Amino acid sequence: MDPSLILNNVCKHIHLTETEKEIFTSFLHAKKLKKKECLLHQGEICKHSAFVLSGCLRGYSIDKNGTEHVLSFAPADWWMADMYSLISQQPGVLNIEALEETEMLLLSKTNQERLYAEVPKFERFFRILAEKSLVANQQRLIDRLSLTGEERYKIFCNRYPTLINHLPQKQIAAYIGVSPEFLSRARAAAVNRG
């Protein structure tokens, strides 16, 4: 396991000594998922935060009609968890699935608490992540209520530039809340304008 990507991610927000880096990486464990393999199923208790080294995860829920609602994607250098379940230790609402073969580092809730005790500055790091997630989710909700499908697609392209041509159109459509047919027309219009 090469910890450089996760250490670079952390060091964008907090400074770590070499000893603190060693403590942090000792709490991580590597995991690989095959395409379509789940890290978490709806109804399970989330016990880990996942940091993606390569590949891509998606977090989604399935409503009572069987419709999938994609809440987030986590390409390389992104974190993912069912935050409600991780914090409350109650059964979660998300499925977390690999969209392709994915390598990640997992930090258990137990080890995260131990990390806070041994390297208190990690409380600041995870607070920053939580704040950014809260802001992004609030903005996404406002966008969903006030913007057109085309405008939401443009925002998706800016937020996930590496995924635009990488993800199935169905996944992008589910994320921005439009039909795959609508997305196809929006993409064609963007190409014609481009």
TrEMBL record:
Gene3D superfamilies: Jelly Rolls. This is Crp/Fnr family transcriptional regulator. Pfam families: cNMP_binding. InterPro entries: cNMP-bd_dom (IPR000595), cNMP-bd_dom_sf (IPR018490), RmlC-like_jellyroll (IPR014710). Residues 31-117 form the Cyclic nucleotide-binding domain. It comes from the Bacteria.
